Amino acid sequence: MRMSSHLLTSKGMRPVHPLTKLYFTVSTVVLCFLLDVTAQVFIACLLLILCVLTRQRRSIFKRFLRYVLPVVILVLLLNVLIYPESEKWISLFGFRVNEVGFHFGLIVSLRLSVMSLSLLLFFVTTPPHLLATAVLMKGASPRIVFVFLHSLQLVTTLRRKIGKIFIAQASRGLDVKGNPFKRVKALFPMLLPLVFSYLSESLERGLALELRGLGIHGPKSYLVELKESGTERVANLLLLLGTSTVILWKLLQWLIR
Amino acid sequence: MAHPIITVEDYSFSYKASNKKALDRLSFSIDEFECCGIIGPSEAGKSTLCYAITSVLPHYFSGGKTEGRVLTAGLDALSTPMDLMMKKVGLLIQSSGVFLSGIKPTVREEIAFSMENLGISRTEIVERIQSVMEELGIESLAERDPLTLSGGEMQRVALACVLALDPQVLILDEPTSSLDGEGVRDLRLILSKLKGKKTILLVEQRMELLPGLIDSLLVLREGKKVYSGHAERFFSSIGSLEEDIGAPIWTQVCYHIASRGNRTAGTLPYTYRQALKALGTIR
Amino acid sequence: MKNVLESFRTSIRKETSGVSIPFIAFGAALNLSLGQIAGLLKLPVYLDSIGTVLVAVLCGPWAAVIAGSVANTIGSITFSPPSVFFIPTVIVIGAFTGIVARHGVFRKWYTALPAGVIQGLLAAAVSAPISAYLFSGITLSGMDFLVMFFRAEGKSILLSTFLQGLIADPLDKAITYTAAWVIVRQLPHRIVIRFPRYENVFPSSD
To answer: What's the pTM value of the predicted model, to 2 decimals?
Structure first.
């Protein structure tokens, strides 16, 4: 599956450099921890606009609704219903809720939503192989980049294999429904074949990687070259400076206190 | 006049924590542009020999015991770093699916992978990819995802990855093990085209691939050299079958027909054409 | 200081060379896939660090840290974005497991199991502040009711999250460590000997 990372601009579609997106994501996540609610709301609105503009908006919002929203709702519910630190209760839409808990829950939910949205926007719109090339060009270890990309591919393969092993073992009479102890025992006939097969494959694959020069030290070249535009370079610098300034400012405030 | 490009002198190797010698005092040489078949039963040391020639043994199988010398394209295979050796000799391992990195989204980028690791310039990478894709007839696969290729297509792409480095020596370790009949025919055609341009070492279990392709034969058993020389001389003698080394299927058929009839088969047929001729005379 | 850095670099190089690289990737993928097995067998545990543990035993602590970190990063990409914030927990799991493996903990079940319990306690201690601060202790793991229970008892978010972890994590990690012991003792010698920390499994090999 190849994802594109295009954003609509006044000049038409163009891909944004993966590193610019990474710096933006890290900045928004860091800032949502350091800045007040108003700033967080502003960041949230900015992220929502960016999510709506991107082609992968459906995927972003789908994942947000499936994985993040339940946590956000539960966080809010937990704090409005159970907040032992305060005894102030108010009525909200006919329900008795803890006032301090409500504000606290909103803050935590907002921060969680902003940070999740920022991460989703980054990961959904950035093809892993392009991100890998971008970090490799900045000097990242080729071995670690390989581990990341290979794991991504393996997850799908393993899940399919696990499904097949489960069916095969269950048909051979493996007890998968008994008491917890029996079910823990059932783990091993499923896990062992998986580990053994990949252990042997690791030997061959490691050899292949050696033959393909993965372990060679020295300068690398790139077939797919990712060039940062002038605008992106300026944006990266502004993001770095802006975030560092806020971090230093907050640090100073904390020290003075 | 041909000169040796691979020289193995009294070479022995044992893997880490193993008392058994994987290769035992092996000595032979292979001339430049020669096509040599390497055969033998399992655990004969065929793959280990390939690793020794390509400098893989000291780097990937460290901790083993080594004696003797291996020279490949003028370089000491036991001490030369991988980045130098990769440009001289290319090894294609048995499983092409595992040989491909699996992390590149297209075949074009997959072929570029080794060259990128070696730091070859982008212009040259582009040229070499185009050249090798044309040579192997895989231009149509350029933008395909390598993980969606068939066995035969993967084999060709894996071969392209090796050939893109333009090695002087090409080693193929059981390349037909996962191929169907058509794949074997295609591979044979490719190797026939490469013959005379590169030195080729072909480790094979499918003996039918060898006649007409290889110039010489190296036979191993339990790490030792059993035979080194003309392939036809080896397969034509009854000894090869009695040694349980194997032979092309038509050779085996003629041998068994002759044995049943209590005849001496004389010289056994080596090529398919010879077998047809022989079968015409054996009733 | 220079010697420490050099020895650190040598360790990392040893643990991330050759055969380790694909196995580290497998460990990361296994962490992400084991949740599926736990779901199929309806086990009350996560089992999401068994890959990290296996990598720690065969390759070493640094390799395990990489496996765990990559798994969490991929977890962020494929399902829960905040997974990446639990990387400090996987660093602790990987480092601790690699260190205890060197002391032969995975050679006997009666050393593996208690080590798993200790690992669980450590993991709970490191995860609690992250979970408490970011999610008020809610992680949709099925154990959130415990956090609510402790909160209703008047405990702080941090303490409630920690207590929930104290109940869930030692059990999960004890099962994980025992599972790792079962697996490694059945591994063929000729394969294990190729891994950088084979001596964690076969001490007298050379």
So the answer is: 0.89
* Model confidence band, residue B107 (pLDDT cutoffs 50, 70, 90): very high
Write the CA distances from C26 to A194, A203, C139, C191, integer angstroms: 10, 12, 25, 16
Candidate ranges A68-77, B136-145, C43-52, C181-190; pick with highest mean pLDDT? B136-145
The tally of domains found in chain B comes to 2
CA distance B209 to B186: 11
Q: Same domain for B2 and B49? A: yes
Please report whether residue C205 resides in a domain: no
C206 interaction partners in chain B (CB closer than 8 Å): 17
- Is B191 a domain residue? no
Residues 6+ apart with CB under 8 A from C101: C56, C57, C197, C200
Per-residue pLDDT of B25-51, as tens digits, reads: 999 999 999 999 999 988 899 999 999
- Above pLDDT 90, what percent of chain B? 60
Give yes or no: residues B113 and B220 share one domain. Answer: no
User: Is C153 domain-assigned?
Assistant: yes
Query: Are both B74 and B106 inside the same structural domain?
Result: no
In a domain, C195, yes or no: yes
For residue B24, tell me if it sits in a domain: yes
Are B107 and B156 within one domain? yes
- Which CATH number do you get for residue B14? 3.40.50.300
Q: How far is A242 from chain C (nearest CA, A)?
A: 22
* CATH number of residue C164's parent domain: 1.10.1760
Backbone angles phi, psi at B210, to 5 degrees: -75, -45
Q: CB–CB of C81 and A84 under 8 A?
A: no
What average pLDDT does range A163-190 have in this prediction?
75
Q: Are residues B73 and B174 in the same domain?
A: yes
From residue C42, alpha-carbon distances to A183, C78, C174 in Å are 8, 22, 17
Cα separation, C138 vs C161, whole angstroms: 8
Query: B3 and B78: one domain?
Result: yes
Pairing of strands B75-76, A89-92: unpaired
Q: Which chain C residues have a beta carbon less than 8 Å from that of B18?
A: 190
Q: Residue C165: inside a domain, yes or no?
A: yes
Boundaries of domain holding B68: 1-88+169-178+196-229
CA-CA distances (angstroms) from residue C39 to A187, C35, C45, C72?
Answer: 11, 6, 9, 19
Encode pLDDT of A110-130 as tens digits.
999 999 999 999 999 999 989
The mean pLDDT value of chain C amounts to: 88
Q: How far is B99 from chain C (nearest CA, A)?
A: 12
Instruction: Return the H-helix or E-strand segment holding A240.
Output: helix A230-256
Fill in the amino acid letter for B105. P
Nearest residue, CB atoms, B101 vs list A212, A221, A224: A212
Mean pLDDT rounded to a whole number for chain B: 89
For the cut 70, the answer to whether the pLDDT of residue C68 exceeds it is yes
ipTM entry: 0.90
What's the number of domains chain C is made of? 1
The whole-angstrom separation of Cα C179 and Cα C184 is 9
